[in-house]
Structures are given as structure tokens and as C-alpha cells.
Queue: 2 jobs
Job 1
Amino acid sequence: MRFLANENFPADAVEALRAADHDVVWIRTNAPGITDPEVLQRAQADGRILLTFDKDFGELAFRSRLPASSGIILFRVQASSGAMVARKVMAVISSRTDWAGHFSVIEDNRIRMRILKSP
């Protein structure tokens, strides 16, 4: 899958996804400091599913109605280390194939998904 990892996404998780042959662009190394709307615009333009820990992307996708149909996965998990986050991310990502087109919230014990409208 093609992902855009937000600047706040842990390096361990980015590396684990890449090791599993996912195509991951990471804002921290490719465009540090860009705004959240710019991150979302970049994910949409590149057809990448956005991976983030930032709740503001729900606001941007639903209330501000910025185009986000490529998909957003918001992680709201408890983890004591980057390695633990990486394990959780890998388990969740491999559990489904329908991330694109959804706003997904990943919590410790559940996944909530809502369809994102096309622009």
C-alpha cells in the first residue's frame, strides 16, 4: 500500500512498514514543518493513505471538508515505545485492505471506520 506518514509518526513504524514492502513517504524527512492542510493535500495528490496521531485531520476532512478521499488512519493507541507502536501499526495495517476512502480511528481494542466523500 501507499502511505504518507505524518511528521508525528514514529520512525520505528515507518521502518516496519517499509520492511513489509509498503511504499511510505514520511513528512519528517520529505517536508518537515508543512501545515496539516498541506499534509492532507499532499496525501490526496499522491494517492496515499495518511497515517497520523493528530486528531486535527478529522476536523479537516469532515468539518472543513478538505479533500481526503485517499484515506486517513488516525492512531489513538497506548504504547510505551516506538517499537511497540510499530508492532501495533503492522498488526492493524495487515488486518484489512480497505483503508483507502475511509477515515479510520485505531484504538487499542477496536477500529472505527467512516467513508470519506470524494472531492
Note: Residues 2-115 form a domain with the Rossmann fold fold (CATH 3.40.50).
Job 2
Amino acid sequence: MSLGAVDLLEALLFVSDAPAKPEQLARAAGLTLGQTEQALEVLSQRLERQGGIQLVRIADGYQLCTKPQFAERVADYLKPQRQRLSRSMMEVLAIVAYKQPITAAEIEQIRGVQSDYGIHGLLERRLIQEVGRKPTPGRPVLYGTTQQFLHHFGLQDLSQLPKLPDGSSADQGERRLPSLFDPE
């Protein structure tokens, strides 16, 4: 694998604001998918040996990020203002994640309260999206999680969601959300 291809992929990943899929990288770099995956492996090994960043696979794509040993110092330097999700938004998000596709009325039935605020806030943050319409009278909107949701929580796919306690689901009686959804 030519170092030029590895360096090009590093440059593409550097300017990418979201995880880049291998197919996107191959197209942008003018490489085959196999060449791209090989170059990503070389890049990953090179970054492991030196420097302060690493290549991670997340949300079906690749992204450059800070190595864990530097994360605290980088966070102090940037002083990011994390957008906290309210408890109601976290409840709505957990329900959507585990029950998708799901309508607003179904979310409200599970929660027992109106959920417009939570749904609107999650749509704005691009953590959920409209995924279709339910084939029932009124054709209500169906909601599901997004790639941004996977990225936000560091998941490859929905199969990595924490398992619900045995014998229970998000809509049964006393709910205990898995730790992924515990408010910060």
C-alpha cells in the first residue's frame, strides 16, 4: 500500500466532521474498497505507534480521535460546553432506541405523559429522525435513531445497546434505563 494513499485517507479523516464510511473514503481517494481498508489498517497501526490521535471505527465508519491518555488534558483545553439531555429527553431517547420504529403516541403511552418537548429536542440534536409513516388511520410519523445517536453514545450499531433487565421491556411498570441512558 502506498504511503500516499495512507496520507490521503488521514487528510480526509482529519477534515471529516462525522465518521466516514469506507465506501465514501474509497470514492474520494480514487481507491478500491480493498485498497481503502488496507490503507486504513496501515494508518491505524502508524497512529498507534506515534502521536496523540488514533483511528477508531464507530457508527459504521472511521474517525480520528484523541488517544485516551490525552483526553482529559484536551478536554480541559477546550472546555466544551456539553449539551446535556434532560431526563425527559433521555427517557424518550431510550424508548425510541429500544422500540423503534415508534410513533409519538406510542412514546406517550409508555411514558404516561406528553412527549412533544423531548421528541422536538432530540430531532434538533439529530439523535432521532422520522423514518416513515405507520400504515394506520392518520398515518402517524414513525421515529428511529440516527447515525448521530450511534456516534454520540460510541456504538457501532443498535446491537450494542445495553440489554434490558430479564423479563422486562421499556414499557413495563417501573423502568430502569440501562446505564448508557443514565443522565449525566
Note: The first strand starts at residue 53 and ends at 58.
